[in-house]
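Comment thread on ticket #2218

A.B. wrote:
> Attaching the input chain for the structure job we discussed in standup.
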Amino acid sequence: MADNCQEKVLVPSSGWGMLALLLAGLLLALVGFITTIALKVPVMLIFVLPLGIICLVALFGCMAVQPNDARVLLLFGEYKGTVSTSGFYWVNPFFNKKRISLKIRNFETGSTAVNEKKNEAGMLIQQKSRTHGRPSKVNDRDGNPIEISAVVVWKVVNTAEALFEVDDYEDYVSVQSEAALRNLASRHPYDSEDHETSLRGSIQEISDQLCHDIQSRLDKAGVNVIEARISHLAYAPEIAAAMLQRQQAHAVVAARTKIVDGAVGMVQMALDRLSKDKIVELDDERRAAMVSNLLVVLCSGGHAQPIVNAGSLYS
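C.D. wrote:
> Ran it. Output below, let me know if you need it in another format.
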């Protein structure tokens, strides 16, 4: 990395004393100019005019830095340092002061930036903003088309890299986050049945991977990714109905499997209790009939209608 991309902390002098001195100089220059006109002594203009011009130019060196803001200072294209401590300062009036916000920001992938607009008179009529995010359409690992979007929370931690390494660091964060999200979605299935990492079933793991992938792309831009989480995840409309039927089928099979497992256990328990307490002795044929009846009753989707046998044991 180039040396000019290493952030240099600059601590300028306080601006209040210099401001008072410059205002006093301007006042002195004004008084001297009036005195020169009144006394008609043109020679005094040699001292009065330069003093006024110097004080007026020096006033452009006054600079206020708000909390969580920074000023990157350039002198004729050369990086001189960054002021990130809030306060009122005075610096070289020929410094070019680039403002960079250090606040935590967030956006949703799929959103687009809207630049500020000004009228012919130069007045601001529309501030810079972002549109609402639209889900990105991408194929998962199994080739199923899905819609996915994520919310990314980030902040600038290196003002020199953010300003010099990329053209527009805000747009760079947006584009690289979108690319990382698409790449992540293509590496994992939407859903999984064998407990492997999936987009729907492994939310925390997917979020950690997404945060790591985005951070690896933004290191060169001086940006730190605080958090990245999936905000929208769904099958694409063209296959949503088919996938819903498949999910419902899996749910029905899982429910029936659970019912059968429970019914077999209950039948086994009933037979063991009957045999242990010697309530009734059943031969193999009657035992099979009892097992069949109990399974029908326990696994049936509706209420069973019992038939009372008022005859003998085998009639």
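A.B. wrote:
> Thanks. Noting for the ticket: Residues 3-100 form one domain.
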